[in-house]
Amino acid sequence: MGQILSVVSQKGGVGKTTTAVNLAAAFARRGLRTLLVDVDPQGAVRYGAGLRRGHATRGFFDYITGQSGLREIILPTQLPWLRVLLVGTVTEAANHAGYQSLVADTDMLRDVLTEARSRCDIVIVDTPPGLGPIVHRALEASQHALVTLQCEPLALQTTPQILRAIQEIAAINSELTLDGILLTMYEESNPACLRVAEYVRTHLPADMVLDIVVPRSAAAADAFAAGQPVVLRNPADPASQAYVNLATLLAERFQ
Amino acid sequence: MTGPAPRGRPHQAAGIVGFLALAVAISATCTKIPTDPTLVFSLAVDSLPGPSVVAGDTLRDTNGVATPLSGRAYNIQNQVLPNVHVQFLSLSPDQLTVSAKNFAIGTASGDSIVRVLADANGLQSLPFNVPVVLKPNNLVFADSDSISSAALSLTTPDSDVSAALNVLLIHQPDTVGADSVTRSYIVHYQITYPASAAKGMGTPSDSTLPAYLIEADGQPSRTDTTDGNGMGSRVVHFSVAQFQPKSVDSIVVMATAVYRDSVIAGSPRRFVIHYTAP
Predict the structure, then answer these.
(1) Which pTM was predicted?
(2) Which of A28, A98, B117, B255 is the most exposed place for a label (fewest CB within 10 A)?
């Protein structure tokens, strides 16, 4: 039975999707059967996961509304052991309230993730920012949570909220473990960034903040623009190495 | 003659078109990564053929056949590289060794969880666990009251499952020493009576079977892997209606463990579950 890891954050734009995509690629490239599931209605995974040209745009939303079967929406990638389930055509809608209600009011997300878990070593869930019903549902079905935190002052103010939410859900889902807070977009040359990192490490329990940090990297941005995970496009880049190290750490924890 | 376009819009539109063209151009030029198709780009590692390796023996599949670890190397085009050998490596060679043909062999003193990884021309897989376990010698009932009827009165809708049918897999050392247990080892369960229940696992919605075996989360399952305490367990799920109008009946379940081609002493353990109509 595989493990389900939800990548969460209170704030948007902190490297959540980049982390989900690259972790998934790092796991799959090194031999683990991996499914990357996008439940964020923004649907950014499709731009960076290395999907083949002309791939289907339907996904989880289309499955839960009965418009598609699971088989037709699990997409192949350039890695044989990485599959992707996009969020689907809800990304084209102006209003995502209906999608949120569907996820919140049914057990379909849990059912899909549980089914995926039985067939994969790792299931990675890219969630929307915040603590809405979709994130709650994802965490209720997960064994692991990873919080991404951009090294900038505003991010600090939102961290307690997401940690509290994980704690509350862990009271319901006893399997859920917080694997750590991952500092992203880290810049050694930026004093503000260093101060944030130091503050976080000082004020949170030592084992809660991961030693691995993901540096800000032009290669990572370029890779996403090219539709590729940076761990595949530029394995020597420091951001790639951070994700590979993180995948190694998590793979050992998950066993 | 058409009127003048609203100010700013042509400029804006041209900008958007330009931006889109640039995005398409970037995408088109970058999607293909120019990488040698003879190089290893990714690995696939197959699931272990069995849950553990017995100390002093080779990894075997669930039928007892010695089976190597296996995996494949792929190139950037997602094609298998048939000439690239995927070699597995043990990170604790005092507990487990891996032969050149990838047979995993537990050392005589092995009794731990060993990390193993695969390597193909320098690309290494993430490590995975291979338990090395003590040789199983005896299958016994884990509970003194394994044959239970009290839990099976079926007087409420919730009581449509039996008590757990628990067995322990015991390791008896060749030399003097205390018995211990064999963990991570397969135990097979089978309903042998009534015959109509023996034919299959059933599904939660299958109301035609009088009984079938389930695991802890309710899924049909006839096979368990012993836990860290050497215990295997399954539960019988009943379809009460299938027993009517009989007021008294019984269900027989056999638990068996096999090492190589032979059943382990004590196998099969026989559970008789007495059914009394509500």
Answers:
(1) 0.81
(2) A98
